[in-house]
Amino acid sequence: MKIRENSGKLGVLIPGLGAVTTTLIAGVDAILKGRSSGLGSLTQMGRIRLGKRTENRNPLVKEFVPLAELSDLVFGTWDLFEDNAYVAAKKAGVLSDKDLEAARPALEKIKPMPAVFDKNYVKKLDGDYIKRGENKYDLALQLIEEIHRFSKENLIARNVMIWIASTEIYIEASDVHKSLEKFEAGLKSNNPNIAPSMIYAYAALKSGIPFINGAPNLTVDIPAMRELADLMNMPVCGKDFKTGQTLMKTIIAPGLKARMLGVQGWFSTNILGNRDGEVLDDPDSFKTKELSKKGSLDFIFQPDVYPELYKDLYHKVRINYYPPRGDAKEGWDNIDIFGWMGYPMQIKVDFLCRDSILAAPVALDLILFTDLAQRAGMKGIQEWLSFYFKSPMTAPGLYPEHDLFIQQTKLKNTLRWMMDEELITHLGTDYYDDYQ
Q1: To pair with 163 at 20 to 30 A between CA atoms, which of 16, 118, 326, 356?
Q2: How do residues 180-237 score in pLDDT, each as one tens digit?
């Protein structure tokens, strides 16, 4: 496969300058200045096996594929609050004073552009640093102009856009989403079913920029956006970063299924006190997140294939906004399982995690891999990046793969394929070489 040269600055355009974005920027600065090593990031610390085990070829991923250099990343953001990234990070309360002050010069340089915002879609937030326009099409044109100006002022060679803003309310695809022609007409007529995130996605793709959806919103997973991505030869992927509780589900559930252990019930509750928790305190926004968090188990367990084990599974998900906890999210799971001769057992998981600390390296990997896909000419839905998402996008008619280990295999085999290396099937032993 021919991959365009990794040269010049990579613009990283981010709607949302909150906890995750500021933690991402501070973390990249820490890696560049030698204060951190990229913990949690496959692109920074992961290795990939090549060839047979006996060959002992295990290069770092970042040495195997031509990823953008962190020193070439230039961040541009939008937010409905005018705070620069340092002030925003201080308010978010994720980073220690020591880490915050060390990253201060890098953070203070990042000043957001006014956001495209509609309170009907995020009811718990208020902000006056927002764009005004005749209609949603005008707002999209303003974004396109800002992208052009950002690229010109920063000598950007290419861009990637990643949505790290708040979860929007739940909506279903409607007629305005069915084609690019209908969508553009809807922008001009201020159709209420066009969300702010869709306006950003439209502006990005029209500007020849890949789009990554880090939230569970209906955004780029509509026919109109798939049509535009194909038209512009741009990669898209999403949706909803897989970080805390769902990460645990996609690790534990495949193990239970692999050993043919039944599951009667899975109760999940979360305590979260940051801006994301406040937004999800609204029932309409919670519904969007709930569907994202609940979907994984059905696809992993395949109750239609294994009815005796999983057809009666009762799955409950709760998110509780609890301000004292801040960004230190707690995900608690009670899992009622059964095994040999139907005897019941239980698993209890209490994951005391840090939401933004888990999400920041996910965002970084997606930025670098999506840029790689762009340079490799890989347009449309990037299913190989499902590893990072709660609700992975798929081609129409295909079910999403949620098993973390299958997702990892697909991701690494895609990298091998891109670099003309043999795919790993785990059948390459001397026995099979001799007798197949």
Answers
A1: 326
A2: 999 999 999 999 999 999 999 999 999 999 999 999 999 999 999 999 999 999 999 9
Asked if residue 175 and residue 196 are part of one domain, the reply reads yes
Element holding 272 (H helix, E strand): strand 262-272
Strands 330-338 and 344-352 turn out to be antiparallel
Q: Quick check: is 20 in a domain?
A: yes
Torsion of CA 44, 50, 53, 55, to 10 degrees: -110
Same domain, 229 and 299: no
Are residues 378 and 230 part of one domain? yes
Statement: the pTM of the whole predicted model exceeds 0.90: yes
Instruction: Quote helix, strand, coil % in the chain, to nearest 5.
Output: 45, 20, 40
> What are the φ and ψ backbone dihedral angles of 54, each rounded to 5 degrees?
-70, -20
Q: Structure tokens of 156?
A: 């950007």
pLDDT-derived band at 325, boundaries 50, 70, 90: confident
Which whole-number Å values give the CA distances from 99 to 26, 37, 96, 165, in the listed order?
Answer: 8, 14, 5, 23
Say if residue 224 is in the same domain as residue 128.
Answer: yes
CB 248 within 8 A of CB 334: no
Cα 262 from Cα 307, distance rounded (Å)? 10
Helix (H) / strand (E) element for 308: namely helix 307-310
Q: What is the dihedral of CA 40, 41, 45, 47, to 10 degrees?
A: 110
Alpha-carbon distance 263 to 121, whole Å?
A: 36
CA–CA separation, 399 and 255 (whole Å): 20
Q: Within this chain, do residues 347 and 370 fall inside the same structural domain, yes or no?
A: no
Q: Could you tell me if 26 and 96 are in contact, meaning their C-beta atoms sit under 8 angstroms apart?
A: no
Q: Are 204 and 147 in contact (CB under 8 A)?
A: yes
